[in-house]
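Hello K.,

You asked for the raw outputs rather than the summary table, so here they are, unedited. I folded two proteins back to back in the same session to keep the settings identical. This is the first:
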Amino acid sequence: MRLENGEIGVVTGKGAEAATPTVHALVGPRGAPLSFPIKRDTAKPLHGVREVVTGEHAVLRVSLQQLWGAEASL
């Protein structure tokens, strides 16, 4: 997902509504990978969902454990 602030992230959980999921930002607004995923609440205007980004536009390696913790190894 591309957020209103220009970050690109991956949905990691449900939000209060279907249109406001929890997203972890992986790429900063200028296109550089972030040092670590940052949890964003898309119900807030600055972090709202601007558009869905397909995998081919957001190729980035990320540790699933950084996003979902120990549950990622199940």
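The second followed immediately with the same parameters:
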Amino acid sequence: MDYNHAIYKYIEYLFKKSELSKRKFAKVHFIEDSTVRDILNKGDYQISLLTIFRICEGENISPSEFFSEVENMFPEAKI
């Protein structure tokens, strides 16, 4: 698994864990609902660092915690 895919899977995990609608998840995480749809559809969407930082803010975690969780959840992920 590549690292980008692991990031998408982790955000999908956060989304499912939240039990929120896509629109509400987006609002809580300070991103557009279209961004949530793009991330969850995993097409060729290139997630920005700003989006990751906003998700971290919504989750009340630091970016280092975010990436640490990605690596813990998906140790096979390679950069």
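Helices lie at 3-18, 22-28, 33-41, 49-59, 63-73.

Happy to rerun anything if the numbers look odd on your end.

Regards,
P.
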